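Fold Annotation — chain and its backbone

Encoding — discrete vocabulary of local shapes
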Amino acid sequence: MSVRTQPGPRERLLRAAHELIYSQGVNVGVDALLKAANVARRSLYEHFGGKDGLIVEVLSSAAADDAADYRNTMDRAGDHPRERLLAVFDRLGEIIARPGFHGCRYLAADLALTDPDHPAHQVSRDYRSQVHELLKRELVALRHPRPEHAAHQLLLLIDGTLAAGATRPGTDAASAARELAEHVLAG
């Protein structure tokens, strides 16, 4: 006889928050989060100190997964830095084409959270810094004359691709960004 264990309140809150914060934004109501997770309000405060703590935890968890996806995408593309960097835009095209794509969760959170001291902003900054460093490392390996600047340009293309993919579906934003990225890589 096997015993099936159900996820605890913390895990249910995280799972519900990942889904609802991405699909509805960080301003999703606490009651909707609690209902989706099937937990009492007390669980939110015990495990996360409140909704802000839950948002930070969700973004932090997503950032780790998303950064790993960038690394895996580049690793699958082989050893040549140019191909590794361009593979990022091919991957963005796949992500944008998914049903239920709602854009960049970090950009959405940054725009929705108007308090400049909200801790979620630091999560977004740290995430973008991590992606910037991944890009810069490849640009250095490519012997780009301005790897720091080019990494900023590529990150801007990534942000723009995700925003355009959400706001202008069907425009093939990833292919357009990939073409622009080729110009950045040419130095």
The two ends are 64 Å apart (CA to CA). The chain is about 75% helix and 0% strand. The chain has a mean pLDDT of 95. The CA atoms of residues 34 and 41 lie 7 Å apart.
